[in-house]
User: Fold this.
Amino acid sequence: DTAVSQTPKYLVTQMGNDKSIKCEQNLGHDTMYWYKQDSKKFLKIMFSYNNKELIINETVPNRFSPKSPDKAHLNLHINSLELGDSAVYFCASSHGRVETQYFGPGTRLLVL
Amino acid sequence: QKEVEQDPGPLSVPEGAIVSLNCTYSNSAFQYFMWYRQYSRKGPELLMYTYSSGNKEDGRFTAQVDKSSKYISLFIRDSQPSDSATYLCAMNQGGSEKLVFGKGTKLTVNP
Assistant:
């Protein structure tokens, strides 16, 4: 059973397009996160939701919009994709302790 | 100065070696210290988690925190080829929902 799953695993798209990445966790956790890992492997928090409420919104362009329909899902929609958006996007979840996060397998986004 | 500094390596050692991985940090408010392991093309997974200063041991892995020096370490004894991965340190202030990660050190253990 996959704990944190993301779809799609790979996404290749043209500049200017709009795309979405979906994340689901079956761990019963109440907090979910989106991270961006750039080509140098630097992992940086983008957003965090607790019980569907946004609690972290780092300095991210407003082309990125997270949506949490319920505690188990956190989606990321990206408008007007740019070359610099190419990265691996990880979803994670935790329950009560931000220190112990469970990460999904990542979505590799390539913008051409 | 970045909040968390970590030598990206790469680090290559023979099987059986003792490996030492380190991070330094500048924010004295950090109280929780984690080590995550990330295999190639996979998500990070939590390896060790320590609160405040001191040592914590789990099998072949030992995590050390020296808050006075703002320095944390992960030691791997009797390293195995399966330990080959990128090791990311991460820190949290406590009361914050945000983890701050180091850039990761890529480790290769050669058979």
Remarks:
- The first strand of chain A starts at residue 4 and ends at 7.
- The interface with chain B takes residues 4, 31, 40-45, 48, 50, 55-56, 90, 92, 98-106 of chain A (CB under 8 Å).
